Structure formats: structure tokens, C-alpha cells
Amino acid sequence: MKQLAETLAQRAILYRLLGGIYTYPLTLEKVEPIIKLERQDKPWKDSLISLQNYLKGINNWEVFLEETNIEYTRLFEGPGQHPAPPFASFYLGDGTVMGAPAVAVRQEYIKWNLAPILIGKIPDDHIALELTFMSYLANEAYLALSKNNNSLLYVLLKTQEEFLNKHLISWALQFCSNIISASTMNFFKNLTSLTKIYIETDFEWILTKKYLKLTTEEITKPL
Amino acid sequence: MGNLSRRKFIKLSGGATAGILMWDSLSSLFRPLSAAEAKTYAAEIGKLKTVYTADVMCPSECGLEMVVKNNRVFKIYGNEHCAYNDGTLCAKGNSGIQMIYSPYRIKSPMIRVGVRGENKFKKVSWEEAMDYIAKRLVKYKKEYGPESVIMDAGDVTDRDCYWRLFFAFGTPNSVEHGSICDTPRRHGPKLMLGGKRIEPDLMRPVLVRQPDGSLKKDFTYKNKLIIYNGWNPFVATRINYESRGTVAAQVENDCKVIVIDPCHTNTASRADMWLAPKAGTDADLFAAMLRYILENHNDNDPSHQYIDWSFKEYSEGWDDFLTEFKSWWNKIDQGNEHKYYSLEWAAARTGLAKEKIAEVSHLFGITKPASLIWGMQSPGHHYNGSVASILGTALNVITGNMDIPGGAIDTELTKASKGGSAKGKQFLKRKVKRVVNGVEVEGTQEELNMDRFGDWPAGWDDVVGDYPRRFMEGVSLRYGPFRGHKYPIKAYIIRTGNPVITGSATYKWQEALTARDEKNNYKVDLVVYIDTPFLETGLYADVILPEASYAERMSLSDIYPPHPLLYLRDQAIKPLHESKTPFEIMNGLAKALVKHGDTDIKAEDFWAKYKTEEDFWNEALLPAPGKPNVGKPLPYPKLPEGYKLLGTPDSLEAGSVKINHKKKVIQGEPLTVKWLREHYGVADWPMSWRRFQPDGGGILKTGSKKVEFVFNKYNKYNKLIEEAGEIPMSIKPLGWKRYPETFYWFETKWNPNNPSYAKYAKDFPFQLICGRVHQTMSATQMVPWLSEVSVAGTWVPMNEEFEYGMLDVNPARKQWNIDKVDPATRYKMQKEKIRAGTWSVGTILINSKDAGELGIKMGDLVKVENPLGKHVISKAFVAETIRPGVIKMGFATGGRFSKGLGAIYANRKYTPNHNELVDPEALSPIMGEPAYADMLVRVSKV
Ligand code: SF4
Fold first, then answer.
1. Which residue from A minimizes the CA distance to B903?
2. Domain-ending residue, one of B383, B414, B445
3. Distance CA A192, CA A178 (A)
4. Please, what is the average pLDDT of chain B?
5. Quick check: ipTM above 0.85?
6. Of the residues B53, B56, B60, B94, which should be mutated to test ligand 1's pocket, given the most ligand atoms within 8 Å of the CB?
7. Total structural domains in chain B?
8. How many CB atoms lie within 10 A of CB B303?
9. pLDDT value for A219
């Protein structure tokens, strides 16, 4: 129980952190918490350590942030062709943005009474939105658990599994690979390695959770 | 959002993580919805909404019906209520979705961080970008005057917002792409009719007043003969209705079509006669036609009644024109020893048989109604194109074909007025002072114009082709009150245009935009690029601003209909990403200028005046239709004839009008955006013909309100020349001291007929021409569908193998039920190898006889060199479809170096950029248009 709570909270935080980092501009407030994250014995530990070590080695944050934001522009914005458009529709559709994948995730957000602030402007399937939505679900799950609301917890975990399966994992891995091969900055290489392995292992984790296999009666009982 | 956003911080127990996060900054992505809101949002999903709007995928700007689903443009159809395209939509219009939703469009404002041309930018906020621009503009204004700033509002007609802002800022140098498009083509109609574009009367249906007083749609074609000279409307669309109308007139009215073009174009493939003259001989042919008609006309012989003398009632100066024209008839052309404009002379110059020239002249003279149309790829792109367009106008006028059913219509004179005070031209009348040679002088803002008071007095449409020189040398005013005033160009703001590729020689633009001053600063200190796609000119920008795509902004369209027809470009969806509409950019930059100390920009002229986009466009609609109630049948028989019409079609029809007899104005209900939205986006007023009126009350816009065979429009320039005592450098090479009073003649450049260039013919035996390839115009090559469709000769699947990012679905191909494939490996966006010979790329078209002599086979790589030491490399398309001795390239089809363009960029090394070969000095002497189609080249196998 305690372990589950910790995992859920930690997932909420990591997804939120990652979601934030994929929004522009990169700022010290967004990066600092990563350095403070505890290095747990998780499969993504090495990637986290690499990223943390990289960040700890930065002497001049101003220069770092400036360079990183220029690189962010090159990777995700262009102008013109760029290596890693941060939208699911680009990878899962016909190469344009705001396609069916964006509508599908919008429907998910609405189910949870959420709407992207820039609805209709920034495509709903932007990597930052999808990661932040995962964080929201994880946090809600954490709260449901703390209130012993197991049926809600079940629904939330199931939603996360489906969201990862249907949406995030089906493109984010390719997105990360594009960055790893295109970026000249170790920050992005480390960040995307962490993102990639984290999403992969998180998906594995959620698939193995027995809570998802519970019957309707079981899920109403305390865990 | 939920519990996370309500707390400022979240702390996690148990030390599982370090867990202190600032949720506020991170949760700015979502907002919570109330249950009711969520229900509304959910209900919207899947719903369809129809918006009537207008295209900009090409300059035809067809009326569109966009179907929006889930906030996304889902389908695009032609608007069946818009007679201009009558519900049709071409493949390119259909591919708009790929443009709007291209991942590679410009998404955010950016500021350059590398050197110009390096393509290194940093995303910034709008505020930062606006401050960056405004701060500099205010500084230039203080140091050099606002005239040191150029606003080039590019290739789309909705430029009003930008013009308003920059006219208000104080510069007279606010221009458009038209000046590097086809100004010599328009010169004749503008000079003689006050118009611009003579087109065949082919737009159907048109609303026509019936004898019983009702209005009915008329679908009938009256045309009997159309001659397209260097105009290929089936491919180089500008006047959409000509594609369908030409065929319909042939089929339904037995109309004959003659195409005159060195290349067997798509339009030629439907023609009854194709004549392939040498390039650059349009004026020669037209002059011979006019001489033939004058010499062979016989009032008493119905088989030779070519001239309809009634033209004299609504024209002036014919006798002067005729005398001057005839004065050449006995002169001998040293190049061929024939008398000017004789059939023999024209045959020697054009390479056509003299019998054919006689036949075409006779056919044109005898067939009524007929129209002689010349295009942008012929007179439009030749040094002496203005001569051809004057002759062409005269031919249409004297044969009585102007403005008759099935004849030739100057569509500039017939389209509705729009823009009005919203355009801001009133600011040009402001009085300004400058110190010139130590003396303070006063004049109007307009008189600081770099072209009309500089080296190009008659460059009415501005001379963008000469910008590189002025960027390097600065501007010297030579005429008007500010004669002697000099200023540098410090800022160049380019919106929806790509002059580096399309505005004369590419290398000159590159040189000028990267030239540095003695302090190592760029000479043109600020370059701002505003657009949706990212094209080559953007590579030289300091600031990039994302403009909302055409589906996301509002404005008005009316591309040359034969009568007033105006339609709305509406916002089908919100501006995507961080893009803004021209209206928002106007107000945003206006505020930033004020913030940085500009005193000419006033809130009451901008954001306080126009609270919404609609306010702005409502003002722009006020002058519509603005045409007189004239012609046959009279558009509104119950309203006074000859009075200017203003207001919605239905209010004029119902007679709900106020009539000002003193001003001769009929004011109906003002046309508004709301009215347009309630009427499928279209305002369609009645058609009429015979609108050139003897009493001057018709649609002609010359000073005399008649057709002017004496060129009164030049008078004011001649006055300026007299006052200044200085001959414009642009006309000096012609040996002129002033602009002529009536008919004139001069040769084109880089043409073997011109004795000055005959010497090059041996080493450079080919004439190079260029033509538009509809689907691959400068900006739309980023749309992959279009890149794949070939156009015979100049856009052909002759690619070499290249890699291109494409989506592979189910790359492992082990499990065929896609839902069962592991999501992690379900799709792969990857670089695919595109096989050689499967993807269209820019090529040159060369005649098979020429190719055979040079040992060139289909698909061979060839080098095309000009006498200026420039060359391009291209694959050769060998065919019979071009006259021997002429080669053709597409316009902007190759050598493209912006990564924003996708596959065309990958193929840049063996595809030709035609503008590498154009002569930057060869600007047509009156209008300053680059002579894109005047060049001699040699071709060799690589
Ligand atoms: S002709 Fe031009 S404006 Fe018309 S649909 Fe095609 S691309 Fe659009």
C-alpha cells in the first residue's frame, strides 16, 4: 500500500517534470527539481543519473539555458523542417498535425474534465500535454488510494494503461529516438533517454499490476 | 487542475522522491472544466461546421467551402455560390490541409542567433519579437526617416493591414509582389484604359438583368475566338474561370482557340491552332497584326471589316497613335532588312510563316466577338513587354471587342472596389519636412517614394526587382520636392513573398541581404519575414513572425471577375500554434511602436478604432461595389444610370437606397462581414457589357475617362522630369529624354533579333524561357502530394534516389491486425529511400532535334550557362513540345535551399533555379520588371 502510494506520487512528479521540460522556454525552475530527485533502484536510474550528472556539471546556467533553448527551437520548432515535431499526429497519421490522434486525446482529457489551455491552437497531442495528463492521472490515483477509493483507483490505473498503450507509447519512443540521433546537446540526449526508458518501464509496471486484473467486486474492497 | 493545481506545492511523504515542485508553472497547460463545459466540449466532437472562405494556395484565390470537424479543417470544397470558380476546386486547393497542418510551418516568433543564411534561430515570445522590431524601427525613423523602412506585403491580396500600419508609421514604401510579377503585361491596359488585366469574357454564370426586369443566371458563352499569347491558363492559373470557360466556349459556342507560345502547353493541347514563335517576339507579332488589320481593313467589304469605328466615340488620340505607328512602316530593320511591322519582317523575327501571321491577323479582325490575351510568361516577362501590351490593348479596342459579350474585358475596371480608408493610403498625404542639401523642404509622405521619385517615375507598381541595388547603394530621390534627398534602406519587412527566389537574380538578393557596412553591421539592418511556410528569404531574416494561414485569418477576395463579385476569406479555425492574423500583427506592432516612442501611430487609428477583425474588414467593405450603374443591360434599371453604386446587392435590388444626386452616388445598405456570412460568403452584383461610355460616365479610369491612345498618364512624370532637368536612368538606355506622348517601340534584351545581342547567338544559341508550374509555385512545394504530380517538360519524375521522412505503418509486418501489434512498434516515422525516377523534380524542356545534335538524351544531366558566367544543372526532358532553339524551365522549381520545403530541398543540387540565370540589370525600362524570359544560353551534357 505504502509502496504503491510512493510509486504513484513519484510517477505524478516525474511525468509532470518531463511534461514541463518539453514546454518552451526551458527555465531553471523546470530543471532544478530533476537534480533533486532521489536515485531509486529503478530501471531508469542510470538515465536519471546521467542527466543529473550532466546538470550538476553546468557552470553557467545562463549560457546553458540560452543554448538549450536555441537547440529546443531547432529540434521542435524549425523554422522549416526539423528533426522532432512534438505531436503524436505527425508520427501516427499522414505526417500532418492535429489529426485523429489529437482528437482522441482531447476526448480523454474531456472525460477527466480537463481542457488544454490553448485548445484549438496548440495541438492536443503535444508531448508536453500527454505527459502532463499522465501526471494528472497518477496524482488522482494517489489521492484515490489515500482515500481508499478503490473503484476510482482502478479506473485511473486502467485509464493510464490505456492512455499509454493507445497514445503516448505508440509515438513517444520514436519521438525520443529522433531527438537522440539529431541533437548535438547531451542535455537533450540524456533527457530523451530518460523519457524513453521511463515511459517504457512505466508501461511495463502498469501492465504487471494485478489491480488491473481485479474483478468488479474485488475492486470495491480495500486493497 | 484538480488537487495538484489547488496546492501551491506538493510534498511527498516517505522520502520516495525529493518531491518539491512548483506546480503552478507546470500546470499552465490544462485548465479544469465544469461538468457543463465538459459536456459542451464532448458534444462538439464529431460535429461539422461549414465556413465559406477563400483560397490562397495560388493567386486565383477561389471561393471555398471549408468543413471543420473537431477544430480541424476536415474537407475543402469549391464554393458553389461563388461564380468565380463556380464550385470547382483544383488538386492544389484540395491539398490546403497539408499546408495548414504541415508540421513544418512557422509556429512561433523567432529571432536569428546565427549569421544571416545560417538558419539558426531562437523561439521568442510575441512581445519580445515585437519589441525587437519596434525598437529598431523607431531608431531608423529618428536617424534616417521612416522612408528607410520597406514593407513588402507580398503575394496575397489581403495586404491592407500591413499597408495601413506602415503608411501610418510614415513610409511611402509599402509594396506588393505584383511589381515582380508581370507589370509590363499590365502596362498597356493601365496606360490606355486605367485598368490592368484584359481577360476573355468567360466567367459563367453571371447574373444578368432580363427584359422582364428579373435577374437570372446566364450560363451562355458568346466567345467566338480567343487568342492566348504566352498565357497558359490551364496550368498557370490566376483567372480560374478561364480553365473551364475556354473549354466550355469551345464546346458550347464553337469558339476557336489559338495559342501562341514557343512551348506546346496544356492550353495549347486544347487549341485549334498552336503557333510556336521565337521567344520574346510578342510585340513583333502584335505590331504586324495591327499593321495587317490597318492595311487590309475595308469598310465596304464584309470579309475585311476588321475595325469597328465606334471605338472613336469613347477614345481619344487615335490619329496621333496611328501617325506614330505608321511612321515606322517605311523604316528598315537593320537586323533583317525588312520594313518594320510588315509580314516579312514579322516572319523573320518570329520565325512564323508570314501566311500564318496573316491568317491570325485576319481571323482576329474578322471574328466577333474575339479577345486577344497576353500572359505573364510573355509580355509580362520581357524587357519590351509594355510595347506588346500597348499594341494588344489597341488591337482589342479598334476591333470593337472591348467589353462586349464574349469579347475582352479589362477586369481591373470591373471588379468591386474594396479596402478604402482601411488601407491607410490617406496617411500618404501627410505633410513632411526634410533637410535637403542644408535646406528644409516640405512635401507629402508620398513624395518620398523610392521608386516614383527616384529612378522609376512610371514604376506605378513599385520596383522590387531593383531592391538589391538600392539595398547596397541607398536611395537618391531625383524628382519632386525632395529632389536630392538620400536615404539608406535600413529595414525590409517581407510578408508572404520569397524575393530571394522570385525577385530577379537570387545571388543579387543574397549579396544585398548579407552585405555589411564599414562597421560590419548588415547594411539592411533589419529583415523581418512574416509568413506561414518557411521559404528561402526567411533564411536571411532577423525576426520571423508566424502568420495565420488562410484558413485562420479574415480578409476579402475578388480575383478579376468581369463584374463586381466580392467574397469573404473567413476564419474557419483559430490561428494555429502561436500564429497571428495580419490584423493582430498590425495592432500588436502598432502598440509596440507607441511603447518605443513612435508618435505617428495613434491608438485611434488602430486598436481603439478596430476592436475586432470584423470592424476592420467592415470598413474595407464600405467602398463596394463602387462601380457605376452602366452598361447593357443596365444592372439596376430602377436606379439612376451612371451613378456610383454602393451597398449590398439585395438592398440595391430592393431599392432601399439613399441617392445623392449632387455626387451621383447610390448608397444601399453597407456591405458587411455579417451580410457576407449570411449569403454564403459572396456578394454578387449584376453583369453588364458595353460599359465604355462616350460621355465618360462608364468604367474607364483614365484621366479623360476615355480610352487614351495619347499617353496622358505619362504627363505628370514628364513634368517632374522637366522640373528636375534630369532624365530617369531607367529610360536613358532607350535614348529617350521623356516618356513618349503616344505609340513607341523598343527592342527586348538578350534576344538575337536585337542587334546588340546578335553577337552572343553563336556561343549561346538557345533562348531561355520560363513558365509557371501551378502545383509547384514558390511556397507550395512543401506539400508532398503536389510535388509528386508531374507537368510535362518542366516538372517530371526524374529524381535521383533520395531519402525522405515518411511514415511506415506496422514496419515489422509480422502481425497484420494493426491493433494487435505492440504499440511500441506499430508505426515508424522514418527516412525512406525514394527510388530514382519516381518523384517529380524541376527539369528543362529541350526540343528533341536540338538534343540530338548535342548528344543529349532524355534524363541526361545538362549544364545551362549564360553569357554572364552563371550556370545551373538540370535533368533534360527531351520532346517535340517546344520550338527548336528555345528551352524552358519552371519558375522556382529547382535549386531550392530552404529546408522548409521538404523533398525539393533534397533534390536541389540537380534541379534548376531559373533566377540564377536572369540578368539582374535587365529590368524593363518603364515598370522595372525583371526580364525573366530574356536570356541566351548554351546547353551541354554534363
Ligand atoms: S486554382 Fe488556386 S485558388 Fe483555385 S482551388 Fe486551385 S489552388 Fe486554390
1. A81
2. B414
3. 9
4. 92
5. yes
6. B60
7. 5
8. 9
9. 54
Question: In sequence order, which ranges of B12-90 are alpha helices (DSSP H)?
Answer: 23-26, 35-44
Predicted pLDDT at A214: 60
Residue A222 has pLDDT above 70, yes or no: no
Using CB atoms within 10 Å of the CB of residue B833, give its burial: 0 to 12 exposed, 13 to 18 middle, 19+ buried.
exposed
Query: Residue B653: CB within 6 Å of ligand 1?
Result: no
Most confident of A88-92, A152-156, B388-392, B896-900: B388-392
Is B428 in the same domain as B527?
yes
Report residue B95's pLDDT band, with 50, 70 and 90 as the boundaries.
Answer: confident
* pLDDT value of position B809: 61
Q: Indicate whether residue B76 lines ligand 1 (CB < 6 A).
A: no
Residues 140-179 of A with CB under 8 A from B: 140, 143, 165-166, 169-171, 173-174, 178
Pocket test for ligand 1, best of B56, B66, B85 (most atoms within 8 A of CB): B85
Evaluate if residue A10 carries a pLDDT over 90.
Answer: no
- Complete domains list, chain A, with CATH: 2-219 (1.10.3480.10)
DSSP chain A: -HHHHHHHHHHHHHHHHHHHHTSSSP-HHHHHHHHHS---SSTTHHHHHHHHHHHHT-S-HHHHHHHHHHHHIIIII-SSS-S---BHHHHHSSS-SSSHHHHHHHHHHHHTTEEETTTTTS-TTBHHHHHHHHHHHHHHHHHHHHTT-HHHHHHHHHHHHHHIIIIIHHHHHHHHHHHHHH---HHHHHHHHHHHHHHHHHHHHHHH-GGGG--HHHHHS--
**Range scoring the smallest mean pLDDT among B18-32, B368-382, B674-688, B725-739:** B18-32
Q: For residue B148, list its beta bridge partners.
A: none
CA distances to B874, B918, B920 from B508, rounded to whole Å, are 21, 10, 7
Q: How far does the CA of residue A220 sit from the closest CA of chain B (Å)?
A: 23
Residue B920 lies in a domain: yes
Residues of B in contact with A36 (CB under 8 A): 18, 20
CA of B760 to the centre of ligand 1 (A): 41
What is the reported pLDDT for A217? 57
Residue nearest to atom 2 of ligand 1 (CA): B58
Q: Are residues B394 and B426 in the same domain?
A: no
- For residue B672, the CA-to-ligand 1 centroid distance in Å is 25
Q: pTM to 2 decimals?
A: 0.94
> Domain for residue B641, yes or no?
no
Q: Residue B76's domain spans which residues?
A: 45-103
Given a cut of 80, is residue A1 above it in pLDDT? Answer: no
Q: Are the Cβ atoms of A113 and B31 closer than 8 angstroms?
A: no
CATH number at residue B366: 3.40.228.10
Question: Could you say which residues from 59 to 118 on chain A have a Cβ atom under 8 Å away from some Cβ of chain B?
Answer: 66, 69-70, 72-74, 77-82, 85, 87, 89-99, 102-103, 106-107, 109-111, 113-117
The pLDDT score that the predictor gives to residue B882 is: 97
Q: Whose CA is nearest to atom 5 of ligand 1?
A: B93
Phi, psi at B678, each rounded to 5°: -80, -5
Bond preceding residue B625 cis, omega within 30 of 0: yes
Yes or no, beta carbons of B29 and A119 under 8 Å apart: no
pLDDT (tens digit, 9 = 90+) per residue, B9-33?
333 333 333 333 334 434 678 999 9
Query: Which among B21, B549, B826 is the top mutation candidate for probing chain A, defined by the most A β-carbons within 10 Å of its own β-carbon?
Result: B21
**At B148, is the pLDDT very low, low, confident or very high (cuts 50, 70, 90)?**
very high
Contact at CB, A106 and B34, closer than 8 angstroms: no
pLDDT in tens, B516-526: 999 999 999 99
- What's residue B704's pLDDT? 96
Mutate to test the interface with B, among A4, A13, A52, A143 (most CBs of B within 10 A): A13
Q: Tell me the three cell numbers of residue B524.
A: 539592411
